[in-house]
Amino acid sequence: MTPLFYCFAALIVTRSRALVLRFSNSTISSGAIAHSMATVAGNGKQPITFQGFYNAYHTGRGIWKWNNALDAYQRHLGPLAGKPLSLAEVGVQSGGSITMWKSVLGFSVHYFGIDINPATQQFVDPTTSIFMGDQASDKSWDEFYSTVTPGLDVLVDDGGHSPVQMSVTFARAFEHINPGGYIMTEDIFNEGHVTSFLFKAAEHIGYWNQQVDSVHLYPGFLAVKKATQGLPPQFQSFNSPVVAMVDSWERMWTAISNHPGSTIVVSNPAWGSMFAAYSMQSIFHQFSNLYAGTTTDNPKGCATTSAPVCTSSIVNSPLQNKVTGVHVYRDNIFVEVALHPPSSLLYGRAPTGFPTASEICVAKNQKWEGNCLSGSGNDG
User: Coil, helix or strand for 222?
Assistant: First the structure.
């Protein structure tokens, strides 16, 4: 993915195909969103999924999300709908994701946005806080956690996507995540990020070892769940049956090739904790091609312009066509194998009357000029 993607601020997506399923094609009105949120608050049920919201969202604040991120949100955060949640997102941009989080998860969500663009302060309301800060700065995080909120249930990093930015955000978050909560990092679509970000993340996971419940790898996406003291690991439900248990990487790859549409378990007591730094680095190395892929756009070249309609996609790597998820627990790894190659990871934008990318990122009168690529004002 080219760095220019990270500057597109006030944009909205078109409908696109997901890796697994899409659930809704109807246009969501503001009244329907309000009703949806009230329903969540009233009975704790989730009336709309992340995928359903995204597919039906055609007007309003801009939003820009990869399909695989929506699938991960639904899988891990969907069950939290209707519960009081403190959710932080690095990269507010034009504010569409604020609508998404509250529409899907309910009125009980308090949203904390971290961005470098002062224009995002327009979204402040009783359940929305906006903090001006650079995600690569320890000083900014010190201020955020000491003056804004000391604890979070979920932190989503959809900011600048550089290894330094992701590493600092990841390292500083865990101690402030509440038990059972998540750190989620998006847009890891560069194999170079395996050594520059993921290997460093492995070192932190190794340090946090006893406090980690699970680690989840998806194409271009990483989620770490914090353990709840006194409770056993909260095992993920899988999309396919477990058909084989193996004790080596070589046997794992053989099983992956031989068992499409299944889940493979990797377990070897001699390896020790899967959360140890060397184990996690080995896991990231084995599945490094989950973080590869070639970006294309349609119409060609639209991703680097302010074209009003643009769809971007990832041409899947061979591994992204085989493996849809890797779930790491202390003693086991569960590898979900695709029955058929999934559709490409798509996202796009449609005209909504928002400012163009050039107006957002190159405005001469903005103090944050040039920080589109170095701060936190990104995908949101």
Answer: strand
- 155 SS3 class: strand
Distances (CA, A) of 180 to 85, 226, 235: 11, 5, 12
C-alpha 282/C-alpha 326 separation (Å) is 13
Q: Retrieve residue 251's tokens.
A: 């046997």
CA distance 58 to 40: 22
Q: Which two tokens stand for residue 91?
A: 């990269």
Question: Could you read off the pLDDT of 226-257 as tens digits, one per residue?
Answer: 999 888 888 878 989 999 999 999 999 999 99
The Cα 2–Cα 216 span in angstroms is 25
Distance of CA 229 to CAs 15, 61, 180, 276, 327, Å?
41, 39, 9, 19, 20
184-193, 267-276, 301-310, 367-376, range with the lowest pLDDT: 367-376
Pairwise CA distance, residues 158 & 160, whole Å? 7
The rounded Cα 193 to chain-centroid distance in angstroms is 15
CA dist., res. 380 & res. 373, Å (int): 14
Q: Which of 164, 210, 34, 52 has its CA nearest to residue 107?
A: 34
Give every CB contact of residue 180 below 8 A, 6+ residues apart in sequence: 153, 213, 225, 226, 227, 228, 234
Among the residue ranges 101-115, 151-165, 303-317, the one predicted with the least confidence is 303-317
Give the start-end residues of each E strand in 85-206: 85-90, 109-115, 128-132, 152-157, 177-185
d(CA 55, CA 103): 13
pLDDT band at 306 (very low <50, low <70, confident <90, very high): low
Report the DSSP pairing between strands 177-185 and 221-226: antiparallel
Pair 167, 193: CB distance under 8 Å: no
Instruction: Give the C-alpha separation, 195 to 288, whole Å.
Output: 9
- Longest CA–CA span in the chain (Å) reads 60
The residue ranges of DSSP E strands in the chain, in sequence order, are 85-90, 109-115, 128-132, 152-157, 177-185, 212-218, 221-226, 242-246, 263-266, 294-298, 310-315, 323-328, 333-337, 345-349
Distance CA 166, CA 186 (A): 9
- The model carries a pTM of 0.82
Identify whether the C-beta of residue 158 lies closer than 8 Å to the C-beta of residue 187: yes
